[in-house]
Amino acid sequence: MANVRTRQLFVGLGFILPNILGFLTFTLVPLVVSFTLAFSNWDLHLHNMFRDEPLRFLGLDNFKELFHHPDFWQYFGNTLFLMMGIPFSMAGSLGAALLLSKDSKTKTDLLKPKLLAGAVMLSCFLVILCLGLEMSAMFLLLSLLFGGIVIGGVLGGITVYRTLFYMPAFTAGVATYILWKKLYNPQVGPFNQVLRPFLDSLTSLVQSMPVWVMSGLSVFLVVAIFIIAASYISKLGRFWRTEEVGWLTLLFALLITLVPIFFASKVIQHWHLGFILSVAVIAVMGWEVWSSLFSGRKPVRDRAKGMGEHLMLSVLLLIANFSLIGISLVIWNLPSMASDGLNPPEWLTDFHWAKPSLMIMMLWMAIGSNNMILYLAGLTNISPELYEAAEIDGASRFQRFWHVTWPQLAPVTFFIFVMSMIHGLQGGFEIARTMTEGGPAGATTTLSYSVYIEGFETGRLGYASAVAWALFVLVLAVTLFNFKFGNRNTND
Amino acid sequence: MTDQQTKTKPQKKSEFLSFGSWHLLMTFFGLTMLIPFVWMVLTSLKPLAELGNDSWLPSEAQWQNYKEVFSVIPFGRFYWNSLFIASWVTFLQVLTSSLAAFSFSRLQWPGRDKVFLLYLSTMMLPGLVMLIPNYQIMVKLGLVNTMPGLILPAAFSAFGTFLLRQFMLTIPSSLDEAAEIDGASKWRVFWEVILPLSRPGLITLTIFTFMGNYHSFFWPLVMMRSVEKYTLPIGLLFFDSERGQSTHLLMAAVTMSVLPLVIIFVVLQKYLTKGIQLGGVKG
């Protein structure tokens, strides 16, 4: 018997031998070495072929330096800032997948597509004729492209569109980063070429409008933030009543949701407003909780019930609210900016615009990415009976999405969220290296780029390893979050 | 996938957007995705004097820009290096991964699942953590600035093993049991039964690995010192820093490095979408 087991072991190991050798040399050994390095003072200025001082172990000194270094916190902040694009790209992927899944190809006979294609071609042709050919060859080209895609789409259906959507993600790499660097060129880049005339007309529009329109719009957006926060929290309170979430979940979600409100009131320097609004939000939730307590119900035993899903949701909301604050700030300041004419941004070379520029590019790449394919697969796995049942119950389109599609997609959403967080934490190196070199003034240096700088340009290998391990701890935290809450979510 | 999708969707759902408006909406989004590429191709055809013009179109298409790229930088060399490295890595990785995946999915041996778990857990490690020691190992082995130095570390992959194992688990075990009753050795079961049946999985892994190494940037950047050993991404970066003002030539180079990807994608996208679902949903 023992003989058979030994034989099995040898055969089994024999098959993985080539792989395990590589695994040991290039993964396990470096891992151990890297961990040791993180506690050492290895610096290429002290330890090289000309000067060989003995390596010293510093204990936790590298990590202490890291936490006291303002640069580290700036780079960490940059990484988090870039990760704020995640909810938008997730929403974009979901939207694209939803649209793609509504393929109406099989429903129609062949005549209709031909008619549509003909109509679009004819209309493009007419537009060109009407505007006169001096309207530039550019316009002709765009209409031809448009018509071409429509015809392709009508004949090829979902495949053609999916290919188009997926293209940016598939080609993402140094080549497309360099392309975008040129697109963002402040002087001759096409973005600013298109923006300049647009901004000129916007300037005159803003100048012709009374100031209160803009400030009103800005205030409206802040009110929207409050409404979003309050309705989410009241929904949570209701969930607590129906025992769908535990009190710990409620508390965490409440705290995260209140952050943008306080931030907004800090920005407009009215602290008391923040307090009043948060009290209002808490009151909304309190009402739900209070009324359920009076109905004599015992609190849920599992205090962290629904934690994973709602932590994710409240983080997504947090980011959405922060962007609303940003937009409302811009609108608020628009009249004073327009008084001396609006200029297109300097994009990558402007300290404040560099990160948003990168986020726009990453959004373009992420919408049609693997996430869209995963959502698409998730959508096909939803049983049509669920929709039929919802329809019989008279559910509106929005209700069907909210009560059938969204909960059915929850595991996929959670998976994508976790994966995007992990990628986001480690990301930004290639972009920083090819597009901005981490600048201006470190505005686009992420943690991974700082590891490269410290390790291969400054030569402080020990410190660089410490940064890498700090990054690892962050990734580990996200992974553990996934393990703790991910499975529960998929079993629902 | 398309067939399934349309079959399972209730007919009523597509009423929200009529046939025409659905197509127009999709076309609009598709165009948004395409526009940067359109600008790229058009700029690559411009003469130097027209680069700052408002019009995107060249007055006359300058096809010789593409030829010029090869004389300005050793672009052909970069192309060859990238293809050479990506092909070798893909070959080695598919080989080692399929062997290991067979062992993890088909063979019974003590400690198998523990070893597999160890493999899986390294998939979550940021590659950055291993980067510096790996570089030092390469210095010790004298492989810095050499092709094997790029190929070897990439030839073993936990992800590939995982992907192929997932795929091999879907192959019914009755097939290899039948072969074993006929007296086939483990090696023959692997080579003649499992490997041919995992063809779709192998193709998927081949595409992923090839793509990943074609794009690979970090490792070649720190490893390669001499220009004639640069891969495409490093070469493009080098071109951008040396001759950044010749946007038309740069865009020609970018177009040429994106083109193989587009072709691979359009031809093989069926396998890709399958692979993403296999590696994603079940992960």
Secondary structure blueprint with pairings:
The complex is a heterodimer of chains A (492) and B (283).
Chain A: H1 2-37, H2 61-68, H3 70-83, H4 86-101, H5 111-131, H6 137-156, H7 158-171, H8 174-183, H9 190-208, H10 211-241, H11 247-267, H12 271-294, H13 307-338, H14 354-367, H15 370-380, H16 384-392, H17 397-426, H18 429-436, H19 447-458, H20 461-491
Helix pairs in contact in A: 3-14, 3-17, 4-14, 4-15, 5-6, 6-7, 7-14, 8-18, 10-11, 10-12, 10-13, 11-12, 11-13, 15-17, 17-20, 18-19, 19-20
Chain B: H1 2-8, H2 19-44, H3 64-72, H4 75-106, H5 112-123, H6 127-141, H7 147-154, H8 158-169, H9 173-181, H10 186-197, H11 199-215, H12 218-223, H13 232-243, H14 247-280
Helix pairs in contact in B: 2-14, 3-14, 4-7, 4-8, 4-11, 8-11, 9-10, 11-14, 13-14
Can you tag this structure with a few keywords?
heterodimer, A: 492 residues, mainly alpha, MetI-like fold, 20 helices, B: 283 residues, disordered N terminus
